[in-house]
């Protein structure tokens, strides 16, 4: 297996540079210590002449003194420079350690801020999801509430009351041509199936629902296409005596069908009339 490549950090490079400087200085010191001491200049040879007899009288003369050795002085100077370099290296190391500590502290603070932002974002997303669910629930409840005419607002003090609206024409009497208001024959409820106009899926679902109801013994005189439909599958009744028939109709259709009380709807169709509303999906 291949070994992963090592990553050179700033601290590693500084330490390597310091070690190189210390090694160079040590090499200079060792080289100066191994240098041979300077020798006295050789005396020039004497001119040839008659050899003088050696002196045998008098005390022996001491040998000439050796020149002073400058190696110790140079070594002490080098040691002084080395000590100064060591102090400079220690100062640089202390400064580097302080820089590394400050950088680590800054990274920790930045990570803490990022973690706090992440938690705040998660909380905001959770609140947004809750609001969306509440909006969907409110829309469903609003679709289930029957539409009623708004009550007139009371007049403001000091202003003239608004003119009374013109009376609405009386609703048409139920006839054989209006099956939605005609009572069912023999006590059997009449079921009108509604789907959204222009929706192929809604028309297909309405056709399937009509077949199921006819097989169950319900009378389905008409399947109607309307401009808008609620977002859920509902069965509506308009009179208190039709509540049991609406429950039986919803049970026949299966699970997922809601029953809506439309007794306050105006104008109300005749007794024994039920409506089935099929959504687009």
UniProtKB/TrEMBL annotation:
Residues 39-76, 147-186 are annotated as: Disordered. Residues 162-173 have a biased composition (Pro residues). Keywords: Membrane, Transmembrane, Transmembrane helix. This is LytR/CpsA/Psr regulator C-terminal domain-containing protein. The chain crosses the membrane at residues 12-34. The keyword Heme does not apply. Signal peptide: none annotated. Residues 203-256 form the LytR/CpsA/Psr regulator C-terminal domain. Pfam families: LytR_C. The keyword Membrane applies. It comes from Dankookia rubra.
């Amino acid at each position: 297996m291949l070994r992963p490549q090592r990553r050179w950090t700033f601290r590693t490079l500084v330490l390597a540079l310091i070690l190189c400087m210390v090694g160079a200085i040590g090499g200079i010191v060792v080289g100066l210590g191994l240098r041979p001491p300077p020798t006295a200049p050789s005396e020039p040879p004497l001119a040839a002449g008659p050899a003088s007899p050696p002196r045998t009288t008098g005390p022996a003369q001491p040998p000439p003194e050796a020149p002073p050795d400058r190696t110790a002085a140079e070594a002490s100077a080098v040691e002084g420079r080395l000590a100064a370099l060591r102090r400079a290296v220690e100062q640089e190391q202390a400064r580097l350690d302080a820089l590394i500590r400050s950088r680590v502290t800054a990274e920790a603070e930045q990570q803490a801020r990022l973690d706090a932002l992440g938690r705040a974002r998660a909380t905001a997303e959770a609140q947004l999801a809750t609001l969306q669910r509440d909006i969907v629930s409110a829309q469903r409840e609003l679709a289930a509430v029957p539409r009623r005419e708004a009550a007139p607002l009371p007049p403001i003090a000091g202003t003239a009351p608004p003119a009374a609206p013109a009376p609405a024409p009386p609703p048409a009497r139920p006839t054989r041509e209006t099956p939605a208001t005609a009572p069912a024959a023999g006590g059997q409820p009449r079921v009108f199936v509604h789907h959204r106009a222009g929706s192929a899926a809604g028309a297909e679902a309405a056709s399937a629902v009509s077949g199921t109801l006819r097989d169950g013994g319900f009378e389905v005189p008409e399947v109607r296409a309307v401009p808008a439909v609620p977002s859920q599958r509902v069965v509506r009744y308009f009179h208190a005596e039709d509540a049991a028939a609406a429950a039986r109709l919803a049970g026949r259709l299966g699970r997922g069908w809601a029953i809506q009380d439309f007794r306050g709807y105006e104008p109300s169709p005749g007794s024994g009339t039920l409506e089935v509303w099929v959504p687009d999906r």
